[in-house]
């Protein structure tokens, strides 16, 4: 026993000594670089400072409300599932609407969407409120025939008139389509997802394992941050899909909104937060795995043929961007 203690004591001392040394110089430099290029996710979304508990509560109820679809089968959550460990998507290539027909684009995650500079793949909605108005009246998605029909259903409900009145106490007519969208947006502004990466950027050098730090270094050095920068790692610019090497798609993207020839095949750069949870990938949902998505992005956008080793490093890092409550 004495001999064991003699061996054990130096090992314990060595462990404490290593811990006391703190991060390596490489880790410190990586933290600083990540903070400068990406940064930590703010604790609150823009505009949330004006949201009241009553408004958020109403928005949450509306987010899950199937009465907002013509045949009472679809809610916002149907395509953007946030229940349990749901990452704000349905994990399908494209989503079926109220009457079974699928849309033509992959449903992007609603998590952290309020940090983006525009909404939808083509940026046709300026903010969360404008976005919330679209799917309800879209004939493929929720298929309601008109705003008037939506309001009729809400006014005939036993709860909604009073809930709208509480959420919009200064308005004579509280149940309006504009207020419906504002309420849903207020709830969506609560859907922030802090990650281990944020802990790392905020100074916790132990938040990322060494292989994850290697992945972050490779992510930056490979040029991924030329598009995926800012605290959402994307969501702040439009880029041509097939910037260096063409990508096979018939979707004109941003051009459908602007009608400018130079906008053909431009799409909003998606946020990479929670990306390991939101397969399949790209606007068409045709890329099944994150490894394949990383390789294709490197080839089509950067003109690089990433090795399997570097691809796996980047994928390892991307896993650190997931909401901590959805990965435990």
Automatic annotation (TrEMBL):
Pfam family, one: CCP_MauG
Keywords associated with the record: Heme, Iron, Metal-binding, Oxidoreductase, Periplasm, Peroxidase, Signal
Keyword Disulfide bond (UniProt): no
InterPro entries, per the entry: Cyt_c-like_dom, Cyt_c-like_dom_sf, Cytochrome_c_Peroxidase/MauG, Di-haem_cyt_c_peroxidsae, MauG/Cytc_peroxidase
Gene Ontology molecular function terms on file: peroxidase activity
Domain Cytochrome c: 54-188, 210-322
Predominant localisation class: periplasm
Compartments (UniProt record): Periplasm
Cited PANTHER family: CYTOCHROME C PEROXIDASE-RELATED
UniProt-recorded name of the protein: Cytochrome-c peroxidase
Organism: Leptospira kobayashii
Taxonomic path: Bacteria, Pseudomonadati, Spirochaetota, Spirochaetia, Leptospirales
Gene name per UniProt: mauG_3
């Amino acid at each position: 026993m004495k001999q064991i203690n003699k061996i054990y004591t130096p090992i314990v001392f060595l462990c404490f000594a290593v811990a006391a040394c703190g991060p390596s110089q490489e880790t410190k430099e990586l933290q600083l670089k990540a903070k400068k290029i990406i940064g930590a996710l703010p604790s609150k979304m823009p505009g949330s400072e004006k949201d009241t508990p009553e408004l958020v509560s109403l928005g949450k109820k509306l987010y899950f409300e199937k009465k907002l679809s013509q045949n009472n089968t679809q809610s916002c959550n149907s395509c953007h599932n946030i229940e349990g460990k749901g990452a704000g998507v349905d994990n399908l290539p494209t989503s079926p609407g109220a009457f079974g027909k699928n849309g033509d684009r992959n449903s992007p995650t609603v998590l952290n969407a309020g940090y983006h500079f525009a909404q939808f793949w083509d940026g046709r909605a300026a903010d969360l409120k404008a976005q919330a108005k679209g799917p309800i009246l879209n004939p493929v998605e929720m298929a309601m025939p008109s705003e008037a029909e939506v309001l009729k259903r809400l006014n005939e409900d036993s709860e909604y008139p009073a809930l709208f009145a509480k959420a919009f106490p200064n308005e004579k007519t509280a149940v309006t389509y504009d207020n419906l969208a504002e309420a849903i947006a207020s709830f969506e502004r609560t859907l922030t997802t802090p990650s281990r990466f944020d802990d790392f950027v905020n100074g916790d050098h132990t938040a990322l394992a060494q292989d994850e730090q290697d992945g972050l270094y490779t992510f930056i050095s490979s040029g991924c941050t030329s598009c995926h920068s800012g605290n959402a790692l994307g969501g702040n610019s439009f880029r041509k899909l097939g910037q260096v090497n063409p990508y096979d798609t018939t979707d004109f993207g941003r051009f459908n909104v602007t009608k400018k020839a130079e906008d053909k095949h431009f799409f909003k750069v998606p946020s990479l937060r929670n990306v390991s949870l939101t397969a399949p990938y790209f606007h068409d949902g045709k890329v099944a795995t994150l490894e394949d998505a990383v390789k294709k992005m490197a080839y089509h956008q950067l003109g690089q043929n990433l090795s399997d080793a570097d691809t796996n490093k980047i994928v390892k890092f991307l896993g650190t961007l997931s909401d901590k409550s959805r990965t435990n």
